[in-house]
Amino acid sequence: MNILFAVSEATPFAKTGGLADVAGALPTALAKRGHQVHLFLPLYREIQEQGLEFSESTTVTVPLGTTSVIGTIVKVPSGQPNLSISLIRQDDFFDRPFLYGPPGKEYPDNGIRFIFFCRAILEAVAALDLKIDIYHAHDWQTALIPVYLKTLYKDRPHYQGSSLFTIHNLGYQGIQNKSLLPVAGLGWEEFTFERLEFFDRLNLLKGGLVYADALNSVSPAYSHEILQAEFGFGLETVLQQRRDDLYGILNGVDYQEWNPADDPFISNHFRIGRMAGKKICKKKLNAAFNLPHENRLPLIGMVSRLVTQKGFDLILPLLKKVNKFKAQFIFLGTGDPEIEKDLTALASQNPKQIAFIRGYDNRLAHLIEAGADIFLMPSHYEPCGLNQMYSLRYGTVPLVRAVGGLDDSIVSFNIENGSGNGFKFSDYSTAALEQSLKEALQLYQKPRLWQKLRQNGMRNDFSWAQSAIKYEELYNKTRTRSNVIKVESK
Ligand code: ADP
Ligand code: GLC
Prior knowledge:
Elements: E1 2-6, H1 18-32, E2 36-42, H2 45-48, E3 55-64, E4 67-76, E5 83-89, H3 91-94, H4 110-127, E6 134-138, H5 144-150, E7 162-167, E8 175-176, H6 180-183, E9 197-198, E10 201-203, H7 204-211, E11 214-217, H8 220-225, H9 229-232, H10 236-241, E12 246-248, H11 276-288, E13 299-306, H12 312-320, E14 328-335, H13 337-349, E15 354-358, H14 362-371, E16 374-377, H15 387-393, E17 397-401, H16 404-409, E18 423-425, H17 430-444, H18 447-459, H19 464-479, H20 484-488
Parallel strand pairs: 1-2, 1-6, 2-5, 6-7, 7-11, 11-12, 13-14, 13-16, 14-15, 16-17, 17-18
Antiparallel strand pairs: 3-4, 4-5, 8-10, 9-10
The chain binds adenosine-5'-diphosphate and alpha-D-glucopyranose.
């Protein structure tokens, strides 16, 4: 199959969260299965600074309302047969210090930046003479691709492929002023409640949900949850209408990148049966965060975007009574300035028990996975979550809320029969989190049981190879499904 993979971030080029991990690994896994994959990304400043070998291939002219903007398609070697990587260069839009805006903020012209990106990709298809079977778009930034395929580009020869839209996070919808509709080249007939309109504004994500031939989210549980008002962010009725075309596929883990046996970001490697390296990693982690090293005390780590999604309204009250717990806590992240402020204050009030580094640091993220005993993810909602699966491989026991992909990947430890890979609670309350934490801290005092729990997790296999097969099956279903009639008959 010829697959076009349109996405706004991908490792190792540019990353703010798990979307980049997925877009870095899934195209490779698909290419290994013999598909021809064309990955398209914006050429951000941080990619320009990586000293990559660029070869410019062609330019595209993108109409934006009454003007047009030129973009350049730049290729970088992928090092992988069947995988081509194209970056769209448009320095006014993408040569900026951040991908979407400074922490906690959005660039005001994000709408137009990603309208441009979507159209530039479609123009590139003709310019590069690609024959695409599947257009795979992800999140609001590329959600206009399925829309264009059913409207502006519908009758053009290059664009007969089908579209799959993957929902990584319904909380971000790319909602814009409706004046951007003509800028996007779309007619007002698209601006209805059934299509792109959302409370009199233009909702780009909704476009993906309505126009794509098939949809999926990044875990089976989340694909059910988003049909309910609590998780649907106002789009639950749209999703209910498309429930027959909506699937859930759990993300995988790139074990080349996340493997304690040869992780280049840690100097003391470990694996089942040879765990001495983990103890040294714990010591180094304490040192990196300036916490006194207490090997007996369980070390609880968290690497996260600092947003309410991740459960900080449960964590912060718990940390206020940290003296109650015989444990240390380490946080790495950036985001909401209020959460940053609270974590900074709590760390300075409890320097022996809490440490916080405000920042985005991949090396430290790996060190936390390697050195911590417990990984905390009490998310309010979690489409998939990757860190809990990374933690399992590093023998770091996940403590999660039973929601979305966390619920699909983590099974509570059962003391009776020794099954399970973590701790899981349901109620979205600090009390439930505290109860789960107490259970974890008690079990930590029982080394044989703890070792069993850790080994269960280290043996889990969430590799991308499995998920890539599921995507392949879904691409095949998508090709047999045409959403054209549904959209036209509205
Ligand atoms: P989300 O995509 O919602 O942020 P995921 O769990 O799917 O959540 O993925 C988060 C990814 O981003 C993980 O690879 C995690 O290690 C990484 N990450 C998040 N915050 C940081 C940070 N401050 N420094 C380094 N890596 C981070
Ligand atoms: C989103 C979700 C996260 C998911 C990631 C990759 O950012 O918040 O749960 O793992 O996308 O799909």
